Amino acid sequence: MSATDTGAGVGRIDAETGRERVAYWAYATVAWLGATLPTGVGRRLFRFIGGLAFRFGPPGPRAVVLDNQARVIGRPAEDPLVRASAREAFRRYARYWYDAFDVVMWTDERILDAFVWDGAEYLLEPTQRGQGVIAVLPHMGNWDACGRAMRARGLPMVAVAEHLRPERLFQLFVRQRAAIGIRIVALGQSSGIGKQLAAAIEEGNVLALLSDRDLTGRGITAEMFGAPRRFPAGPAMLALSTGAPVAVVASYETPTGWRGIVRPLAMPELTRDRRTDARAITQAMADAFERIVAASPPDWHLFQPGWPGDG
Length: 311
Known about the structure:
The protein is an alpha/beta fold. The chain has helices at 18-36, 39-56, 59-73, 80-102, 108-114, 121-128, 143-152, 167-179, 193-202, 234-242, 274-295; strands spanning 115-118, 133-137, 157-162, 182-187, 206-210, 220-224, 227-231, 246-253, 258-264. 50% of the residues lie in helices and 16% in strands.
């Protein structure tokens, strides 16, 4: 059965599982807290919760993050530096969730004061000429705040999102991102998604693609931190099919906001063999992400196995 949208995010889906209902209400509570708590209080509370989750939460997520941080830092998972970085990763990820809903209420002036850009011209100049840009991002810092700051600079934004269950949870995130000025295209909901994204680029939008996790199982393998892992094929294929410039975008948490960086992707020399070129572009993207993550490992919100072959 389909959801009945009440307009308030409390539609009902009869086929929801118990776990899906819990997930919806957990995120709905975070959304409420983000809209209710003062920023300083909310951040301190969520960082505290993140620290508790690292220390007392289920061992599975902690082990995953320790393994990922160990790969990035180049030390064993039991190393004190790795444990400290993983603990901070939990705290920063918890703050991410608070901030993602808090910034919905911020004015343009406030987000621009809190979000310091380095390299924004690589997005602004093409779009001012009416040229779309493919922005590839790792799950770093706060991509929702990044999108809010981009929109405050006048950048037209389109993003792809995984279609979550239950449906009302997905719609909660669609409304949240619409409120910060991002139009969402749902992954997997249409066989014509590639055409939709190409059209968004043609219209002069910044197409923001979180690109450090392959959700399809059919991605492109590239090396990152000395080992192979899969990346989504979409960014490379869109770059080849549209000819649009590709920019690497990331953000880092600061005590009072974020620091954002934008760099043009160092594109490889193309061979006109589509498969070879897609692999080369994806490897260039992986190399850029490696440098970004190495600069601040706790800012990388990777809570899934980053290198499944390691196990």
